[in-house]
Amino acid sequence: MGLTPWFYWFTKEQQSKTLMTDINFNIDKPDLPDDQINKHKDFKKLMYKYQLATKPLYKTPLYKLKFNRIFVIIILVLLVMFIIMEIMEKEKDVPVIETTKEQAK
Question: What would you report as the CA-atom Rg of the chain, rounded to the nearest whole angstrom?
């Protein structure tokens, strides 16, 4: 026996109640006022967003991204990691002089 769609699991009465009966569409909306329409007419902003959307991310330098703070944070984290690695490397290079009781006398 094959799987049946979910709407066959209900009775006919339940099906009619769940299918599009509670949804009302308002097709007679009032027109927007001119000042509200003109507020959103910004061709420069539209072109800027279009160019951002169409330019591939790998062609955009990190410092020109909208979120340039992220670039600064990444650089700082890498710098801190580099400094920590250099400090750890210097500690490994320092010879450890073991002193025993016999050498101390």
Answer: 34
